[in-house]
Amino acid sequence: MAAYQPIDPAQLHTFSIAEREHKVSLTGMAGLPIAAASFREWFAALPDYLAVKNLHTAIERIIQARQQQRPVIWAMGAHVIKVGCSPIIIDLIRRGIISAVVMNGATAIHDVEVATLGMTSEEVADTIRDGTFGMVQETPAFFAEATRLAVAQRCGLGEALGKLLSTMQANHVQFSLLAAAYEMGIPATVHVAIGTDTIHMHPNANGAMIGQSCLLDFRLLCSVVRDLAPAQPGAAAGVWFNIGSAVLLPEIFLKAVAVARNLGADLDQLTTFNLDMQRHYRPTQNVIGRPVQPGQGLELIGHHELLLPLLRQALIECWPAGKA
Questions:
Q1: Which H helix or E strand runs over 191?
Q2: Separation CA 96–CA 316 (nearest Å)
Q3: Whole-number pLDDT of residue 323
Q4: What span, in angstroms and rounded, lies between the C-alpha atoms of 219 and 225?
Q5: Domain boundaries of the chain, sorted by first residue
Q6: What is the DSSP secondary structure assignment for residue 158, as one 8-state letter?
Q7: What are the distances in angstroms from CA 253 to CA 159, 202, 222, 258?
Q8: Which residues, in sequence order, are CB contacts of 319 under 8 Å at separation 6+?
Q9: Which of 73, 159, 267, 283 could form a disulfide with 287 if both were Cys (CB 3.0 to 4.6 A apart)?
Q10: Using DSSP, how many helices (H) and how many strands (E) does the chain show?
């Protein structure tokens, strides 16, 4: 210990605080409107840091992408529908803001049940105990019909489901993402992992038909992801949103990016967002990390039933030519 002596702080080199770069300043502080006259005024008063800054970036990138005819793709887990956000997404589809919707099997199931019955989602903790979990008749029958239609018409499962709901004029079809996508002529792809959905437990589930229709949906999605590339060098790229899918859709996206780049797509300016209630490994790695560089991947952490209405209203208010 004798070889060490306390440092002499008088020898430290200092400089004026005015020369230092700062991450926080008065320009980003929250405003305090007592009674905001409009959403735009309230939104402008939010503190311009962290999540708010990411939200502003999301709005900016969506507007840029759509102005240059690049896709804005929303990939969604089932929870988005289960917390009542279908009308939010359908509105953005009909306004031409969302260019494609991507979902796993559970999301499609809840969408179909909402459209046909006006209700969905059972209490698993109760029904798993008595053997009734997933044992309804109508939902698997509807999906069996959709897979037959998809194979017969050589279309993906998403299109087949949307077409059935739309043409049969389901009782609550106005609440269906799949029907809205079909009616607006935009891609809706469904990506199923066999054994993860209740419909797979039933005798009318045909693995070959499910696989064929979902493989076609994956190839369709690869085409949409390839179109995320800018129309010309220096122009805006498209935007991918992962909303509430912790595993399946981030994996689907990673593979679609690999295919698109293999086919020559320049995705270096791609922007991705992950919207969820908490951070997960695969969205972090496969959505806003690995496939995006040197583009930009950002997160908005929070409840869907709060974030999605906020994002929708902010988009409408901030659209350059008025409401989208």
A1: strand 188-191
A2: 12
A3: 57
A4: 10
A5: 49-316
A6: H
A7: 19, 29, 9, 9
A8: 63
A9: 283
A10: 13, 6
Return the minimum-mean-pLDDT range out of 36-50, 140-154, 199-213, 260-274: 36-50
Place of tokens 């009734």: 132
Cα(242)–Cα(73) distance, integer angstroms: 9
pLDDT for 31: 87
Segments in 85-174 forming alpha helices (H): 86-94, 105-117, 124-130, 138-153, 157-167
For the chain, the farthest-separated pair of C-alpha atoms sits apart, in whole angstroms, at 89
- Is residue 138 within 8 Å of residue 168, measured between CB atoms? no
The residue type found at 306 is: L
Q: Is the pLDDT of residue 221 over 60?
A: yes
pLDDT band of residue 1 (cuts 50, 70, 90) is low
Stretch 219-230: mean pLDDT: 97
pLDDT bucket at 193, cuts 50 / 70 / 90: very high
Q: What letter represents residue 151's amino acid? A: V
Distance CA(263)–CA(257), nearest Å, equals: 10
Does residue 35 have a pLDDT over 90? no
Is the CB of residue 295 less than 8 Å from the CB of residue 75? no
Residue 93 pLDDT greater than 80, yes or no? yes
Cβ(235)–Cβ(227) below 8 Å:
no
